[in-house]
Structure formats: structure tokens, C-alpha cells
Amino acid sequence: MTGTTTAAARSRAAVGGANRWVVLVVLCVSLLLVALDATVLHVAVPSVTEDLHPSGVQLLWIVDAYPLVCAALLILFGTLGDRIGRRRVLLLGYGFFAAASAVAAFSDSPMVLIGARALLGVGGAMIMPATLSILRAVFPDRRERAVAIGVWTAVAAVGAAVGPVLGGFLVEHFWWGSVFLINLPLLAVILPLGRLVLPESKGSSDGPWDVLGALMAAAGVLGLVFGVKRLGAGEHPLGLATLVPLCAGAALLVLFVRRQRRRANPLIDMRMFARPTFSVSIGCIVLAMLALVGLELIAVQYLQLVLGLSPLETGLRLLPLTFAAMAAGATGSLTLRRVGPRRMVSGGFVLTAAAVLLLVMMGQHDRPGLLTAAFVLLGFGVQSTLFGAYESMLSEAPAEQAGGAAAIGETSYQLGAGMGIALLGSVMNASYAPAMSSVKGVRKADGTAASQSLGEAYQVANRLGGPAGDSLRSAARHAYVHGLHVTLLVSAGLLLLGALAALRLPRIMECAAPGADTAAGTPEAVAVPAAAIPEQRPRERHVPDLRKAAASRAPADRAEPPGKQQPAPGRRTALVPRGPSR
């Protein structure tokens, strides 16, 4: 038996057992770690500032080092996992994450904390694409894979939502370093469990690994994400600190694409983007994240600064969005089978646009029922879109390119989040700032300072006091609500464009026959621990003999004596049933 056949048999054996659901649990806990660390530090920033006294630039890097490094290295480690083994990269990522968490928890200076956050980003970049590509290998049947992706996306939503709440609890009862220490007990469990149950899988390993191409992709994504984040922070788009990284990142990515097209063994097969399903799915992920992250940021400011809710009350108001996203992920597989990718993704965009338009009815007074209904629609719509797009993207990519495809999907996720903050934040500022330049009874310098943000306007109003302060505060609230409505309308338009783009996705969810993934073509190599392979008895298959069939159909006067029958020229002597090709 050849190595390929053995690998395919082991893969089918692993898929046939219950072990794959244990693998899914390990992968989801891994994803939970990465999602938690993306948001858990936000509420600890005041405590970090009080303890370590970072400068403004250092504080910015403390917050942004993790997502920047993680986004930059996703393609590098995703494609490396295809070459040397995704399980190996994932376990190495656990080690980086554990070491970085310990260093971050006991950091005694801003630079040490920045370095630890960057190392956490390295671990996150190893973990994120590996979880999705291993999931692709362990669940070759598309129906079961859809269920697994539904659970995977629901866990991501839970991690992002629980992060601030858990971080706030830990900071209140312990100290800011405890937000990093919570990673260690989880890693102490999943590291040995992962070594025991996770199967090793690889993609194509023909030719040398393109190290230069991987570094070009990392530098290009880093420059692009960094420039987008500076735009989201309100920097001038034509400033050198913003324009240089944006242009350099875009140029490096263009060179990376050209290099991959010329190479015989590229890191990422660019022909995947020629497939409408793959490219449209990537675009839908970007648009969905653009809407979700930008709206969440504006919604938090609205709840706290306009409605006057406390941070805890704000978190509780956002819980319906999280629960709706969890429900959409849990039921996503059933929905996808019934309505198909096209209707699911397009319908998710339409539902999200409806939620955004419903939020336009919000003003300066609290309307809890309306807000809850809008957040439920928003969470369900966005998660349905993300689920359908991720599932379609991963199913369209070849199995041997699963790591690269997962890395592209995760990079699109990060870019969409950064672009959402930059684009919708810019629309918000453009609508809000002009109204603050000519407030009656307020000097121009004070109006200019108040135009930076609603929080800044409140600080200026408190300093002014009296009628001038009241006038500035009222004008700022009116201007912010007006800017919110304009931003919501722009977001709804982008979401409807996404719904139109999603019409290019397949109408139905096409599922191959069970076992076709490994029976047809050349399967990817999957090495499964011996303990994970259930004992199976070989099944006998009937192989029809064409010689006997031909003899039975031959005329009597042309029949040959037994033992001298010859097969017809050019025909195969036996026909072995094969699974449908992919």
C-alpha cells in the first residue's frame, strides 16, 4: 500500500470516529484564547497607564502591537503550516502564547509589555489559520464541516464579547496583569490534549518554501494594516506617517502577487481568486467586518456619552448582539443546507442593513426596546454573513491549500475591522466636526478642540461652565447624533452592496458523496495518532469483470472456448468504482 493510500485510509478512519469532535473542542478553545486577547486589554488600559506611565505613543503600541503583528504574520504561518504540518505550527503557537502571557503579566516597563504583546501576536498568527485548516482536514464532509464552522464562528463571537467583561472583572478584583494570566490554565490543558488528539496534516510540499515571498506578504500586510489603523485614529490621510506605510504595504502586496504568479510552486495559488465563490467570499468577510467593528465602536460611544450609561450597563446592552451571533453560528449549518450560500450571505447582509436603518430611529433619549431589537438583528445578520462566507471560502479552496486559504480569510477579517474603524470613523468625524466650529457663545479655539470628539467636547464644556458650557454640550450631542445617523446610512449602503455581490455565490450547498474528499484525486496527507483510529474491518467490494460481461453478450458463432477468451483491444479488464471528482 502506498503512502498516499495509507494517509487517505487514516483520514477516513479519523473522520469516521467521534474523535473529530474532540478535535473541534481543542480548536475552539484555541480560538477562544486568540479572540479573548484581542479585546481583554481594552478595559485594563487605565490601570496600565497608572502603573507603567507609558507615553501616548507607547500606549498606542501596547494596544495595537498584538493585532498588527498577528495580521502581518497570518499568511506566513498559514502557508508554513501547509508545508511543515499544521499541528506542529499550532503547538508551537501554544508555546509562544504561554511564554508571552507570562511576560506580559509581570511586565515592569512599557517596552517589555509592547514586546510581550508582539510575541502574543506571533502566537496568535500561528494559532488562527491552523485551527481553520485542521478543521478543514478533519471534517472532509461538507455537511459536518458546516456544523463545525458554525461552532467555530460562535466561539469567536463569544470570545470577542466576553473579553471586556472578563477583563473588567479581573482588573477590579486583582491587577491588570491578571488579564494575561488567565491564558496559562487554558494552555496547560489544551497543550497536552492537543498533542494527544490533534491529527497532523500537510498540503503540497513540492519545491522549496518561498521565504522571500512570505516576508514580502508579512511586510505588506503590516504596512497596510498600520496605515488603515492610523486613518481610524483620525490621522490625516496625506500625512507621511499614514501615506508611506499605506503605499509601501500596497506595493509589497502587488509585488507578492506577481511573484506568486511566476513561481512554479507558489505559497498561495493565485488562481483561487479567479474562482468567483472564493473571491466573493473574501470580499463579503471584509464588508461584514467593516460594518460590525465600525458600528460597535460608534455604538459604545453613543451608549456611554449620549445616553450616559456606565461601562457595565453598556456591556449588558451589547449582550443581545452577542447572543444573536451565537444563535446564528449554532444554526448556521441547518440554514446553509436549506437556503444555500447565496441566500444565506445575501440575506445576512440585508438583515444587517435593516438593523442599521432601525438604529437611525435612535436619538438623544434611551429606547431600550428599539436598541435591543436592532442589536439582535445586527448580530444574527452579521454572523450569518460571516458563517456563509467562511464556509464557502474554505470549501472552495483545495484541501492542500487550506492553510493559505485560512490565512487569507483571517487577514481579510483583520483588514475589514481596521477599515471599518477608519472609514466609518472618518464619516462620523466629517459629519460631527463642522457643527462645532460656530457654537454661539463659544470661542473658536474651544470649538476646534470640541470638534475632535464628543468626549473632548464634554471636557471643554466642563472647563467653560455656565451658559457657554451648556450650549457647547447640547450642540455636541446634537452634532454627534446627526453624525451617527449619516454614518448608519453610509453603512447600510455598503451592506446592500455586499448583498448584491453575494448573488454571485452558488445557489445551493453542493456536497460530495461521503468519502469523496479522500477517494477522488490526490488527497492531502493526514497523519492521525494511532489511538484516534477506530478499528475497522475491510469491506469486500464487487469488481465487475468486463471479460465475462463481453462473453455473455457475444454471438454464439463467435464464442471462443473457455480459457482462450481475450479482452477487446483498448478496453480495461476491470472497472473499479471511483468517487466523484472534486
TrEMBL record:
Keyword Cell membrane: yes
Biased amino acid composition, Basic and acidic residues: 536-548
Cross-referenced CDD domains: MFS_MMR_MDR_like
A molecular function (GO) term: transmembrane transporter activity
TM region(s), chain numbering: 21-45, 57-77, 89-106, 118-139, 146-167, 173-197, 209-226, 238-257, 278-303, 315-336, 343-363, 369-390, 479-503
GO annotation (BP), single: response to antibiotic
Keywords assigned: Antibiotic resistance, Cell membrane, Membrane, Transmembrane, Transmembrane helix, Transport
A GO CC term assigned to this protein in UniProt: plasma membrane
SUPFAM superfamilies given in the database record: MFS general substrate transporter (SSF103473)
Coiled coil: none
Membrane topology note: Multi-pass membrane protein
Domain of life (superkingdom): Bacteria
Gene3D superfamilies attached to this UniProt entry: MFS general substrate transporter like domains, Multidrug resistance protein D
Domain Major facilitator superfamily (MFS) profile residue range list: 23-510
InterPro entries for this protein: MFS, MFS_dom, MFS_trans_sf
Record-given protein name: MFS transporter
Lineage of producing organism: Bacteria, Bacillati, Actinomycetota, Actinomycetes, Kitasatosporales
